[in-house]
Known about the structure:
This protein has helices spanning 8-33, 51-57, 63-80, 136-145, 153-177, 215-222; strands at 36-42, 86-89, 96-101, 106-108, 111-113, 120-124, 130-135. With 224 residues, it is an alpha/beta fold. α3 packs parallel to α5 (153-177). The protein starts with 7 loop residues before the first helix and ends with a helix. Mean pLDDT is 85; it is low at 1-26.
Amino acid sequence: MTCVRASANVVIGAVAVLAAAGTSAAIAWRASSSTIDAGFWWDDAPFAVSADDAVKIGGPITADELTRIQRLSRGEVERAYQDLRVTVTDHHDAFWRISVIGEPITINRNHSTYPFAMAGQSHVFGPLGGFGSVGFLVLAHNAIEYAPDGASRAEIVDGIGRGIGRAAVHELAHQALGTDNLSHIDNRSDEHSYEYSSADRSAQYYGTLRWTTAWPVLAKKFGK
């Protein structure tokens, strides 16, 4: 009888494949039967609008206004996911994670460089979760620019809170949909949807948003 011994690399590779398959299966079972945590929090850092934007709204954002913005942003996230088996927490080790960031990281020759180029971004790892961030300065600026004619300062402050929360909803959807997320999100078919690919629009901050193309997949994966 001939005995063929597999190389160490083959054995290790097979074990790795089996381990990955087992992990994916376990996570798939978890996604189909249990509640999943989505972390949403504000970084421990100062949050302020630019000097030009402060002039437009009659002064810098106050501490009380920032508290309201934070509360409204969280409410937007909770509302968007309330019909799914998703619990919005402030845990930094949640399965999906979004933080609100705001400070410029460098100032060179009067030019500020920010830790993001867009309103939001995510790193998506499918069955292993994901993490990302949304940018206060970009979203606050857009809310000020898109404010309806005659909008009060309070209405603009509320628009900032809604815009930040809705950006987080969009980024969490990228993570929840997994590696095939682009086929269900980042569309330009309905600017009044969470799936719309840009935060550079009035509806991000004023009025209501709704789920469209992503919802059937989210409901199938995480419906109650």
